Amino acid sequence: MKYRYYLVTLAAATILTACGGNDTGEEMTFESVKVEKTVSITNESGAPQCKVSLQLAAVKGGPAERAKAVNEMLAQQLLGIEGVGLKVAADSFANKYTGDYIKNFAPLYREDRNDKQKRAWYEYHYNITSDTKKGREGVTIYSATIDYYEGGAHGINQRLAMNFDNATGQLLMLDDVFVPGYQHKLCELLLEALTDKVEAKDTDELKAKGYLCAMDMFAPENFELGDDAVIFIYNPYEIAPYAEGIIELVIDNDELKELWK
Description:
The protein has 5 helices and 8 strands. By secondary structure, the chain is α+β, with helices and mostly antiparallel strands.
């Protein structure tokens, strides 16, 4: 069961179109969308289960077109479903995820159910929680934590951040906030921040500690535009082994002054 396609680099996402002239740029307000669903892999008593828990913040009030655009973007980014609101997408995701679980894994479980060591492989879960906060002037930061287990040695925990322009509802990408050609300088700053964070002397020592072994430093589209700094977020396996977890690199806004648009 593969549902992680929606966590690919956000540069591939469609940029939201600007809303109409009635938009005042007011801060967004949110309401909670909650969907919980649990199914057993078979009808047998005590059979393994798949549990889906989605607790999402959805825009409410304000300009209708802005709310619609932001909520549809959230549905696309968090759930991989396009063209519908967040509540509809959450219900659809939970139904499909649990349905595919039974369809794809019940036959395998019936073969393995007498093997107690394999039972834990079939205890699936998929959880998303989210929160919002004020970012730099005119920006709302939306942060989602995604935790799932689909068999294997361990579960996966990821964090996805999105920055929305309050005036237009646009999902802001790096190209929207930095001048053309920013990539080289930004990667230099990120490499310096990573070196300091893990107390390494240079790139060779970084690699010896398990960082950047199979890739060069890059600036992720997973970032938070704060008042004083930009936080760049790297999920497990992106620049380091799973054991290092989620890595945050903080670059002060003053260090970025030459790069701002």
